[in-house]
Amino acid sequence: MNIHTIGIDLGKTSFHLVGLNEGGEVVVRKRFSRAQLLRFTANRKVHVMGMEACGGSHFLGRALQEQGHEVRLIPAQYVKPYVKTNKNDFIDAEAIAEAVGRPTMRFVPIKSDDQLDLQSLHRVRERWVSRRTAVINQIRGLLLERGITLRKGRRYVDAALPGILEDADAKLSGALRLLLAQLKLELDQLALRMEQADRVIQKTASENEACQRLVKIPGIGPVTATAVIAAIGNGAAFHKGREFAAWMGVVPREHSTGGRQKLLGISKRGNRYLRKLFVQGARAVLQQKTKQTPGLKAWLEKLTARTHRNVAAVALANKLARMAWAVLATGEAYRAPLPAGA
């Protein structure tokens, strides 16, 4: 039995495998546990194996690579067009096997353990940030019901809340004071956890040579630098900076027909967390545009003179993303853009 291509539909405990021969005909259709799957593939030599990029795919991909197989991870949205009929696990596996052999298909690089550790740290930290925002909004809402208005912003809540709790003249019941004290304790605990996470990120960035090159780019700090490394590694999955910017979703959507080009707002595809970090970094650079290098300063002045500040922030985020990819892909240090005509 000659198996040319294998597609694997992943599950939590069961894995459905479909093997195709060189003519694209199904020659194997089996269901395995994880251990059974690895025993089956250990004794097979195939051209390529494909899986959807989802939970557990990086672990299994590395395990199959250690057996000597060529493994490719495919974004789930690129597999869907190859599903012929009603959905089930074997049909999905067959669609993966067909998609993985396409010469123009795009793949997801398999992440290393270090990348997964960094990615996990960022995901947990982001959840803590969201939780802190929710607690602050709840505090402001509870106080507003008692006629006490606080300005929007974490620092105003941190500054005003101790005084409100100690103010005996404030018309707050004992139950509400207890709730506010507990919410303040939760804020303090979240702040401590985030401080610890930031220290780990700072330490990782200081020990990683690629991160040290990334933080030289305006608007990119240790958080963004480590997030980029966790997401794309050395950037080898992209052929040029524009592909990385398009994957991140900071390029215009297009709806053209009949030879007439129509560009819309940004696509917002890809990594939402990374896009947010780059846009926030771009806004920080725009606020300090007079302190930038002459080449970047001149470019920003021309940009802000002809467009809205939000559009300028996204355009700058696109530029910073291309710079970050170039620094990673070439292995060179960041070089500030020169003024026009220099």
Q: If you compute it from the alpha carbons, what radius of gyration comes out, rounded to the nearest whole angstrom?
A: 25 Å
Distance between the termini: 65 Å
The number of distinct structural domains comes to: 3
The largest sheet, given as strand count, sense and whether it forms a barrel, is: 5 strands, mixed
The poorly predicted ranges are none
What portion of residues belong to β-strands? Answer: 5-15%
Structural class from helices and strands?
Answer: alpha/beta
Spatial order of the strands in the main sheet? Answer: 3-2-1-4-5
Per DSSP, the total helix count is: 13
List the helices and strands and how they pair.
Blueprint: E1 5-9, E2 15-20, E3 26-32, H1 34-42, E4 48-52, H2 57-66, E5 71-74, H3 76-79, H4 89-100, H5 113-144, H6 154-166, H7 174-207, H8 209-214, H9 222-232, H10 241-248, E6 252-254, E7 263-266, H11 272-287, H12 294-306, H13 309-330
Helix pairs in contact: 5-7, 5-9, 7-9, 9-11, 10-13, 11-13
Task: Give me some keywords for this one.
342 residues, alpha/beta, Nucleotidyltransferase, domain 5, 5-stranded mixed β-sheet, two-stranded antiparallel ribbon, 13 helices, 7 strands, globular
Describe the overall structure.
The chain contains 13 helices and seven strands. It has three domains: 5-100, 2-Layer Sandwich (Nucleotidyltransferase, domain 5); 113-207; 209-330, no CATH class. The longest helix is centred in the middle third of the chain and has 34 residues, at 174-207. A hairpin with a 5-residue loop joins strand 1 and strand 2 (15-20). The protein has 342 residues and is of the alpha/beta class. The chain is 56% helix and 10% strand. A five-stranded mixed beta sheet has the order 3-2-1-4-5. Strands 6-7 form a two-stranded antiparallel sheet. The chain has helices spanning 34-42, 57-66, 76-79, 89-100, 113-144, 154-166, 174-207, 209-214, 222-232, 241-248, 272-287, 294-306, 309-330; strands at residues 5-9, 15-20, 26-32, 48-52, 71-74, 252-254, 263-266.
